[in-house]
Amino acid sequence: MQKTMQTFIQKQWPLLLAFFVPFFTMALIYIFQGVYPFGNDSLLTVDLGQQYIDFYSYYRQTFFDDPTTFFYSFSKAIGGDMMGLWAYYLTSPFNLLFLLFPHTQIVLAVTCLTLLKISLAGLSFGYLLKKSFSGTGFILAAFSISYALMGYTIVNQLNIMWLDSLIFLPLIVMGLEQLIAEKKGLLYSIFLGLMLFANYYIAYMICLFLVGYFIFRLTGVSYPKGIRWKTKFTNILTSIGLFIWHSLLGAGLAGVLLLPTFHSLMESKASYTKFEFDWELAYPFPEMVSKLFVGAFNFDQMPSGYPNLFIGSLALVSFLCYFFNRYFSKKERLTALVLMILFIVSMNLEAFNKIWHAMQYPIWYPYRFSFVVCFFMLINGFRSFMHYEGMRPISTLVSMLLTALVSFYVYTEKFDFIYTEQIILTVLFTCMIIFFFIIKPQQYTWLPIALFLLTAVEMGVNAQIDLSRLSYVDQDSFTVYQTGMDASIDAIQDMDDDFYRVEKTFLRTKNDSFQANYPSVTHFSSTFERTIPALFGSLGFPVGDGFLAYSNGTLLTDALFDIQYYMSEKNDFYLEETNQPLGVKSTRLKESFSRTQQVPSLIDSLLIPSVSNAKKKEFELNDMQTKPDLRSYTQIGETDKTFIYENPNALPIAFGSSDSILNVSLIEDQPIQLQEAILQALTDNRVTEQFFVPSDFDSTVYQNVTLSDALNEKIYRKQVLNNDASVSFQFTPETNDSYYLTLSPNIKEEDVNLFLNGEPFTQYETYRDQLVLNIASQNKEDTLTFKIELEESTIRLKDFQLYRLNSTVFESAIQTLKAGGIAIEEYGNTSFKGTVDIQQNQEVLMTTIPYNEGWSVKVDGVPTQTKKALDSLLVIPIAEGKHVVEFNYTTPLFFEGTILTILSAMLIFVTSLFFKKTLKVETNECINKNSST
């Protein structure tokens, strides 16, 4: 065994270096930065901390708790298809690593997965160099390290699902090289299919690159002298045909995921696509060279910056020398130059950039395809270095001249992410590489080692500088929040095993529901169905392309969307004398806490990150909203940081309704009017009084502000620009009803500060649609002051109106709807079964399940046609009386995708057998011809 290991190391040591040098380089940087478990920092930053970490918890839950959530989940807003989310975020085969870690150590799992993927990228690239380009020794390891630790990798390690592309791209290209040279496409199809399965979005960019790379490699194919042009032409046509065929088969292999994802995209991300092209440049072309310097990165480069092109001095100088290397034909080098120009233009011209990003401009993380450009430079840089004998002296002269010019340009332009020390470092590394080139590395056995060490140091320094310029979520705050949420949700679910939704006045991320595994409304993902944010935006909630924050609920929306339980931060604002005392429910919740919070075993204690009591006390929740309506709910319990409430008005997920709801259309920027229309329609317009009654403020106080009226809006201007300015609106409620204020969408976060009775009024930051602010509840005869403090010189308030919700008629309407509510007998994420008693004047069963073709419904065992209400919600026609209703969800195109995957696998097998037999016959014919001559 020991001898076998020694033999393996002796043969594979360059590949081992390609894996372990990036691994230990990044591990040392994490240790130096105090990343958990070596400190209190984590890798959670930007989207990794705001999206992905919650999806990884959901990933574990799918495998260990409920596999049906692979297809559908009610943790995704009010419910949604999950295939698109899996395909975009979670189908990487390397994510299986999460199953080896407990839920409490999910942050550590992310760190380990990041290390693994970066190291495998180096190994994969090294394997390509060895198998396809005869790579060996320290030079193979040096270029592999440059690939694994290039600027793109370091900057995008937080987009952990994209790192799969760095692993699979070399393997795909290795298969393509084999297809061109040997007419064998098996490996190419398999690895392309795996990449499309792992992340179709980045795989799309790889597919575009493969077209250009295939053409480039065809131009480099050399033929023996005297071979006929017909033979060449036949060979080229065969290669093209095989390339197209095996590309299609590779895509077909991932059909089980791609077809359902395509359907999902049509409802979400792709629905925003516009085939309009902007032919302007994003920035002056010379500025791109700034990203070739060590540590050329800061936080501002993430939302909008230049393409990440840092690959290290060895690879960059070698790539420049490629164009002067006579070993390669002029035709090949010219093709490479044309392709490189196309890449450079694509990383600047907006129209080409849009094509690379699947016809949508990226939001944050610009030029996400730049890794294929780096790959192209690294491959040809390595090929050029391996044929150093073909280089001309002019190549090193050009390299020195360009280094001087580019460094002078970057120094004079004063880029805010490049300091003088970085320029000096880059020049030193580059000059040493050029010096080694001049003395010819092949003539000195120590030079490859020197180049390897120099490259390892340079790439490590770049990684350290880049990562030091980001801020991260600390481990303690994540652990305190995670354990607190888990405890509260576990207790609620233990107490009440029915279906309901839970919301909060605070949040860590908009995907807390995935982290703690509960149905909710708030959500954020790139695969969010467009209709749901459109619905909630019209209802007065903060929404955007891909997200929804349930921070502006009224008593009506809380009831309609089955928000049965609410959690708030511990704030005396919610403690009123009118609040109902803790009762039976409180006792039940305490018992649930006792059952779900058992003393952990020794092993469990070791697996849970420890947090000091002082840290726990210091931790503060991130408030999302101020919600006086909670005073109208029943407080049923509390934790160290939160109060827990029950909503007595929550409707079930399905209930009888008038079919008038089918005639209600979404109204833009009139949320109260829409809510009024919905409740009137649900109750068949039988209520003669208004639910939402327009009210007036008693008085308005202006401080350093003048008022002028315009069409449908009021304009408030500062009198003295540098002085404080505010408008205070006062009123005294005559009842304990809830009061709401509509705020126009033209008000931005930076324009104003909001206060209620002198205390900051918390409101989620996005102001895209008209918002509904809850400013009073249970405040009879209390004088309330809502103050708007101006941060800008002028603000415009459109449709700024106060409304009172008539609690008497509202609660009566809710009780009428509850009478026709579903009594759930059994439920899961993909199925529901229950009984309903439909009342008179109720012609449909209204649900708060998003409409989707995948839902099928049976009433008393008979399949029933479904309809759509409010452009978004599932509705079922139904007759008066008692019925048994069954809901079942089947992912659209999943069956067809499965058939496509099986068929593609069979065709790959048949194609491989056919060409293997054909090649064998051709080989035998050549042998016979040679033996006869």
Automatic annotation (TrEMBL):
Residue ranges of coiled coil: none
UniProt-listed Pfam families: YfhO
Keywords: Membrane, Transmembrane, Transmembrane helix
The keyword Ubl conjugation is assigned to this record: no
Domain of life from the UniProt record: Bacteria
Transmembrane segments: 12-32, 83-101, 106-129, 135-155, 162-181, 187-216, 236-259, 306-324, 336-357, 363-382, 394-411, 417-439, 446-465, 893-915
Name of protein: Uncharacterized membrane protein YfhO
Record organism: Carnobacterium viridans
